[in-house]
Amino acid sequence: MMTAFPADAILVLIEVMPSGALARSAAGLLGAASDVGTPVALIVTGADRAASAAQAAGELGAAFALTADPGTDSSSLAVPTVDALSAAADLVRPDAILVSNSIDGRDIAGRFAARSRLALAVDAVGIARDEEGIVAHHSVYGGAYTVDCAPTFGPPVVTVREGAVEVRAEATTPQVELLSVTPSGAAAATIESFEERAVTSSRPELRGAARVVAGGRGLASQEQFALVEELADVLGAAVGASRAAVDAGWVPNSYQIGQTGISVSPQLYVGIGISGAIQHRAGMQTAKTIVAINKDPDAPIFDIADFGVVGDVFTVVPQLIAALSARKA
Amino acid sequence: MKIIVLMKEVPDTYGERKLNLETGLAERGESETVLDEIGERALELAVAQAGQIDDVEITVVSMGPTTATATLRKALAMGADRLVHIADEKLAGADLGLTAEILSAAIRRAGFDLIIAGNVSTDGLGGVMPAMIAELLGVPHASTLSSVDISDGRVSGIRETDSGSMRVTAELPAVISITDRFPAARFPNFKGIMAAKKKPVETLTAADLGIDPEALDTPRSIMLAVSQRPPRAAGTKIVDEGDGGEKLAEFLVQNRLA
Ligand SMILES: Cc1cc2nc3c(=O)[nH]c(=O)nc-3n(C[C@H](O)[C@H](O)[C@H](O)COP(=O)(O)OP(=O)(O)OC[C@H]3O[C@@H](n4cnc5c(N)ncnc54)[C@H](O)[C@@H]3O)c2cc1C
Ligand SMILES: Nc1ncnc2c1ncn2[C@@H]1O[C@H](COP(=O)(O)O)[C@@H](O)[C@H]1O
Fold it and tell me: Which of A33, A257, B145, B192 could form a disulfide with A283 if both were Cys (CB 3.0 to 4.6 A apart)?
């Protein structure tokens, strides 16, 4: 069977979580693709999970779903997915290839772009189409500038920042096809073991969260960092941290917001015991509303806060939690 | 063992960083430039390895403006054995693909067993260079490592991803990238600074590497438009007088944020 793919196809790599569920980035990627063309999803997962993953991609707007089984290769880092992406791009001849700007997504997009010699645009916050093709919008230097990029020719490979695209595609029933992939044999690192982070099912993921509560060195200890989590749960927010809090070992790497961590653009950002160093601000200053609690009236976070409380986190935050909980009850 | 460390000069994040609104390039004159901190950590890792393994040669490879040589020399004072600096006006504004081609060609020319890079640079925020280079060199990559162990011709470590952490291992030659969980670099001491003066510095152009940056047969990413966003202003700031938490709760509720 040979499916004819539409001329305006946008190939979207959907990441699948170890649990078999689609990564949360899928909705935004398919939404972005539907805005500029016809979304064609590529799902690399075990054969037993392919059908349900393809249906799930359809619910998020994939008109077509190509599935590829990495088989015994699944312990090779990135390369099997890059091989599948190459096969899919050859088959679909898309106008653009979209990948999540996650850690895995960047590795895959980087290798794929280098292998196929396609132009690569990373960390896009939006995509558009003009007469010549697909254009990627970027927010750089911590949101101080907006830059538009496009390839000189050929389809671009674009990694899209999770949570940046709000458009959602209409649910549909995808045309599903098993993709045949010839392994490239490219050398890859081996994944020897994987420890999935215990996820609190009720708490949103940091990337793409609508609300974020972040804690810094001001929390003083791992035990006291729990205050950040408590406030996050009352607000239904994700938990983030400054580099100082990550360095102290209170929270994992993946919590780090800023220059060398994650960039967030939530509706609400609450910074607790965070000074607001320029490198931290680079990852959160595009938040719609910024709130800060810090005992130092001169902390730079106050320069960009919509509402700042100069005070001790250990008195202000418990009172805030109590006040919010009382309203909820 | 030949270790390549990929380092670059970047505008200092502590200063105000500016983009030229016409070219979209960093305004080099506007901000102080420094060695990217993550690259310094990568070099620190290499220097620490050299202390444990016999016959390690550390080469720093960097692509950047001619003026960056002065900044890059610091790497020699910190313990690198030699510096390969690709500086070429035709490479100003090079996109990710061209940068990866250039760096790969320079690395191949220098010879390598292990390439150590930062996970993301503070100016590019790409975080794709290590994987691109691995692909072009035909070697494995292990990215975003928070710990590294090199022995028996292999490199292994803990790779932190968005959903958890994994133990990965790769046969050398390989490319790794590290996160800022690695210790900050030592300051160069006087002895290091003196020794650095005698260390070889090689400056290369794209042509030396057999690459034509202006070739039209490979697609490149180009900047179409740049605009500056208005800076954020400060809003209300209150001093807690016993009701700070309640006032903040009110603010959140009024703005439908709670
Ligand atoms: C290249 C580079 C990249 C970097 N990348 C990042 C990054 O991605 N993310 C990041 O966050 N940082 C990054 N940093 C580090 C950054 O410069 C700061 O060191 C870091 O953000 C500081 O974290 P902090 O605000 O928690 O700690 P501090 O700066 O120590 O601030 C702690 C704050 O808590 C307040 N405080 C203390 N006790 C209390 C209390 N009881 N009640 C209320 N307030 C209290 C203090 O007044 C202070 O303002 C980077 C640095 C460099 C050079
Ligand atoms: N121009 C360059 N010269 C040398 N190394 C670079 C250059 N650009 C990127 N790198 C390396 O690749 C890492 C990741 O960079 P990036 O992909 O730009 O975020 C950096 O920490 C460096 O180790």
Answer: A257
Question: Would the CB atoms of B161 and A156 count as touching at under 8 Å?
Answer: no
For residue A114, give the nearest of B97, B127, B225 by CB distance: B97
List the domain range (segments joined by +) for residue A55: 9-178
Asked if the structure places residue A1 within a domain, the reply is no
Residue A205 counted as domain residue: no
Environment class of B125 (CB within 10 Å of its CB; exposed 0-12, middle 13-18, buried 19+): buried
B62 lies in which domain range?
2-209
- Residue in chain B closest to A75 (alpha carbons) equals B168
The alpha carbon of A35 is separated from its chain's Cα centroid by a whole number of angstroms, namely 19
**A-contacting residues in B 183-212 (Cβ below 8 Å):** none
* Domain-located, residue A276: yes
List per-block mean pLDDT (blocks of 10 residues) for chain A, which spans 329 residues.
86 91 95 98 94 97 96 89 98 98 96 98 96 94 90 97 94 97 96 84 87 98 98 97 97 93 95 96 94 98 97 98 92
H-run or E-run covering A213: strand A211-215
Give the pTM: 0.95
How does strand A133-140 pair with strand B57-63?
unpaired
Q: Is residue A189 part of a domain?
A: no
